[in-house]
Amino acid sequence: MTTPSYDPQKMSQPRDWKLIVEKDVKIPMRDGSLLYGDIFRPDAGSEKLPVIMNLGPYQKDKVWIPPEDLEEEPNEYMNWETANPLWWCPRGYALLRVDTRGTGKSPGKSEPSSYQEGLDSYDCVEWIAKREWCNGNVGTLGISYHAAFQWRLANLRPPSLKAMMPWEGRADQYRDQGYHGGIFAMGFVSQWANSTAAHNLLGRPRSYNPDAFNNNILWEYMRKDLDNDEWRKNSAQWDRIEVPLYSVGNWGGFAMHLRGNTEAYMLAASKHKKLRIHTGSHFHPFHAGEARIDQLRWFDYWLKGIDTGIMDEPPVKLEIRTGGSTGRYPFRWENEWPLARTQWTRLHLNIDRDTPAKGDGVEGTLVPHAAEKERHVTYSAGPGHYRPVSGRSGVTFDTPPMPEDMEVTGPLVLNLWVSSSSEDMDIYATIRNIGPDGKDVNEVGQRGEPVPCVTKGWLRASHRKLDPARSLPYRPYHAHDERWWLEPDQVVECQVEIWPTSMVFRKGHKLRLDITPRDGVGTGHFTHYNADYNSGATNRIWSGGDRQSWLLLPVIPAK
After folding, report:
1. Is residue 161, in this structure, part of any structural domain at all?
2. Residue among 293, 358, 418 nearest 13 (CA)
3. CATH number assigned to the domain comprising residue 208
4. For 100, what's the count of Cα atoms within 13 Å in the CB-facing half-sphere?
5. Does the residue 10 lie in any domain?
6. For an engineered disulfide with 542, which of 133, 376, 463, 519 has Cβ 3.0 to 4.6 Å away?
């Protein structure tokens, strides 16, 4: 679709206003507690201002020193994953940053990503909207935690919240962050909990809030390893989210945030929705010049009533990856998600070997037609401990070299028939882009690192139960409310949700599928816990005959 053009004059222009900074403002909560926030606003005289708000645990006073290649200059007001006051305030916006309970300077019991945070953010929105300099309109904008809090806020429908822009924000606390396919996502959660505790407790913060970040989040996560009402209460409730919504994801966020952004666009009750998915690190795109224009045009429209033309543009804006770039790819505009012209294509697993190949060999191919004869391949489930294991594990299938470019953009599904000698089985699925030289084509990861992975999916076999009311042909939705244990060598069918992606597999390249019993290539710090039932177990994958295993691809026809 042709790139829409916009009039740069139909948006707020910077003015030479003096910056007013109000530090450690006390914000009253409904239960009598106080949270502390910082307000940044221009000295605009009698002009009423809209507000962009954040609430999070990363210390509002902690100055973030960005890398040299960021498209915004460092300054004393920069803060991790939040908007820059020196860019927004001259354009007629006030910014509010709030330390959530039990973090930074705010007292109280720390409850990260909780329903209580939703209530507190509601109270902050309504409090700031009543300031005499405010026009009564509040928006929310921020990355990661500063995106995820927006879902819990929007669930509660505060009257003064007029628009939101969750930038790379997980939405389902169980499926997006805590348990991928029922497998505990221990790597990031434990790292995050420990580092956030250290930032809040050690060094200068000890002098003003020595009891900060007092919670038992790791125990709570592991204790509640099935989905329940508490996970639901702390997650997005799509039928209640009606505020205008611009959901922004990153193709590289396949282990934390991306699913929340695509689910939001598909399911939120908002009448006014947009979706943008880009590439790059976790924070560079947010501060890019073109991104700030998108942000400004969105909030100008909803918080200031300026017709920037943004709502006249197609609702979906996607970077289409063509493989191997260390920079950004061009955007393409679309009218829906998933794309209406998608050719849903099954590639069947054709098993060539009964046992794993040695070295870099493969165990089978991905082909358009199902095999008439059933076969299986057997592999070790591994030692069953939480330590990296060197060498290749599991089995691999790949396509023949592409006869022409093939674009894959959208959600994927892996349908597998499996069995195990144990009572359970972990399925890790990794999609890779293999070049003509046999090497991985890397993409930019969340930390700016090269990642040899296109996207991933996970499922614990005992969690294979589907919720038929919420499942879609291209996105299975697992109930995660009970365990269907395996009997030894019992063959069962599992549908693995593979998170959405966009990749043009170039002519001569191969699409490779790894199915492993533990984290495979491209995992980075998003590792998972390998439960004890893997120890010494033997797993099998079946395909052919009456047990067809296949990979569903969203193939986009060339124009």
Report:
1. yes
2. 293
3. 3.40.50.1820
4. 26
5. no
6. 376
Q: Which domain holds residue 238?
A: 19-313
- Alpha carbon distance 415, 425 (integer Å): 15
Classify the C-alpha dihedral 166-168-171-177 as positive or negative: negative
**Quick one: pLDDT at residue 6?**
87
Tell me the C-alpha distance between 394 and 383, whole Å.
Answer: 13
- Residues linked to residue 17 through DSSP beta bridges, in sequence order: none
Cβ pair 331, 319 in contact under 8 A = yes
pLDDT for position 115: 98
Instruction: Give the pLDDT confidence score for residue 360 in this predicted structure.
Output: 83
Tokens of 293: 């224009």
- Position 337 in a domain: no
Instruction: Give the separation between CA 358 and CA 341, rounded to whole angstroms.
Output: 40
Question: What are 150's strand-pairing partners?
Answer: none
For residues 192 and 256, state if they share a domain: yes
CA distance 260 to 175: 9
Distances (CA, A) of 342 to 22, 160, 408, 479: 51, 39, 9, 27
Between CA 22 and CA 32, with CA 27 as vertex, the angle to 5 degrees is 155
Residue ranges of the chain with per-residue pLDDT less than 50: none
Asked if 238 contacts 260 with a C-beta cutoff of 8 angstroms, the reply is no
Yes or no: say if 335 and 552 are a contact pair by the CB < 8 Å rule. no
Residue 557, C-beta contacts closer than 8 angstroms, at least 6 positions apart? 341, 343
Cis peptide upstream of residue 330 (ω within 30 degrees of 0): no
Is residue 151 helix, strand or coil?
Answer: helix
Name residues whose C-beta falls within 8 Å of residue 390's C-beta, 6 or more positions apart in sequence.
none
Q: Phi/psi at 219 (nearest 5 deg)?
A: -60, -45
* CB atoms inside a 10 Å sphere around CB 16: 6
Residue with tokens 């909560």: 29
Residue 64: burial class (beta carbons within 10 Å; 0-12, 13-18, 19+): middle
User: Is 281 in the same domain as 387?
Assistant: no
Number of independent structural domains in the chain: 2
Q: Is-contact 383 534, C-beta < 8 A? A: yes
Domain match, 407 and 284 both: no
Evaluate whether residue 176 is within a structural domain. yes
- Rg of the Cα atoms in the chain: 24
